[in-house]
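[Q] Does anyone have a clean structure-token version of this?
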Amino acid sequence: MTAPRSIVAANAPQRARPTAPPFPAAMVAKTVGREKRPLGELFALTNFGVNLTRLAPGACSALRHAHAKQDEFVYLLEGEATLVTDAGESILKQGMCAGFKAGTGDAHHLVNRSKRDAVFLEVGDRSAGDSVKYPDDDVVGYSAPDGKWRYTKKDGTPY
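[A] Here you go.
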């Protein structure tokens, strides 16, 4: 497949499957109302990923998490979202951005508590050997040597 030169981002295909490994339904429910359009993959980018993400009212961007090796960056294009970190909460409005340095342990996610959709770009690198912790949920993830993510409970029991 040949990568396109350019596209209208909102017309990119949605992620074929939601990010929902075999987690309990209560964890999966937190991201219902989230639409991700993986833009980086369309252009065959391998060093970093870019997603156009839309959160319906009440939806979360992900389970609150912190990466060991991957930096992340978000830029709000439309609406507003609440950024939740270990330090507390703050409102991001159109034109605002936030970054999350790898290895700090500062867990984060966005929650749409407004009455209209929030749309943002999320950018992250694809560092090999990454792991991710989810302090609010019984899950830990790591990038296996084959590049696929594996998830366990905090006690090491596989999902």
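[Q] Thanks! Anything notable?
[A] The first helix runs from residue 25 to 29.
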